[in-house]
Amino acid sequence: MYTAGFWLMCLSSLLFFMSFNMLLPELPDYLTSLGGGEYKGYIIALFTLTAGLSRPFSGKLADTVGRIPVMVFGSLVCFICGFFYPFTVTVVGFLGLRLLHGFSTGFKPTGTAAYIADIVPLARRGEAMGLLGVAGSLGMAAGPTLGSWLAAHFTLDVLFYCSSGLALLSLIVQGTMTETLAPAQRQRFSWKLLKIESWQEVVEPRVLVPAAATLLFLLPFGAIFTVVPDQSRVLGLTGESKGLFYLCYTAASLVVRLLAGRASDRYGRVPVLIGSSFVIIASLLMLALAPSVTGFLTGAVLFGLGTGLNSPTIYAWTVDLSHPERRGRAVSTMYMALEAGIGIGALLAGWVFSNEPAHLPFVHLASAGSVLCGLIFLLATRRRVPAVLEEVA
């Protein structure tokens, strides 16, 4: 039912997400070894900052130069940054590299989502985004687990070079795919295309509601992945077991994407988002109020189930509401909100946590409050926003 291009895109996404996620369990300790333990919140925050700042450009370029060039640039940045981590021996150098590394996710996922939207019909869009999410989830699951194993059995340098190598493989896969942007829209790249002359070149007004919901729902993601390495250590999960949270989270996300990928196609985007919000809130309460390995991993499973329903639904809803000729900008608008939510969550978590284990429950309770606000927002706006583009055309 899907083209070869679709499956190649899934493979490329798997390799890409594995590349940078395999670093997550080890980076907090690495930064601490450099003398920057108090800057742990910046590991994700700086990454998402440049990802968010690059979205306006990646969205515009995806609608003018093409989907594939945008993806290639993102994977190339990931390849180069992974290679240079072993050479960063100062806190400033490390944080600067994290800043540059963020450009990778500012470009690759934008081009990917626009490419998938081009080749998948509306009736199967939720399912397709779910399958694409399965590929990303596999990368997110295998990455941290593989990263912890490499760090435990080899060296951090080996980990960094393997991360770079996976990004290179993702880049090679993209070279086998065919561009989907209509020839009439394509332009040769020029520096003038990077000039933003109006806010409409940055933001797609049709998708502001999904974007606002994305910001509120993704704030916990940045918060959780900032404190998970420390919470794992507090609970005695060290060495190879340090990646257990990521494994449980991603396995649950993978299962729900496979089994419920068409849920939003069948029942509607907003109803599925409302249901997933309750699951995410339950997971955060579990992480805050059940300070044990069992509660910790149960919270990971629930968080995976909730986000496994939430993410592909948000993506599909964004594409539903976008104009075909501005699809890249619509996707980048949603991703800007995503990066803002993750970055705010990471900074908030770093500030609240402050390397004090007793503060961990407050991080998760604040995250639950953000999701609750997102739920209220959806309930308040659900009757004002059409389900698909055709209703507003």
Automatic annotation (TrEMBL):
A Pfam family per the record: Sugar_tr
Localization terms from the record: Membrane
Membrane topology recorded in Swiss-Prot or TrEMBL: Multi-pass membrane protein
Residue stretches spanning the membrane: 6-27, 39-58, 70-97, 158-182, 207-228, 243-260, 272-290, 296-318, 330-353, 359-380
Keywords for the protein's UniProt record, in alphabetical order: Membrane, Transmembrane, Transmembrane helix
Major facilitator superfamily (MFS) profile domain location: 5-384
Taxonomic superkingdom: Bacteria
This protein's name: MFS transporter
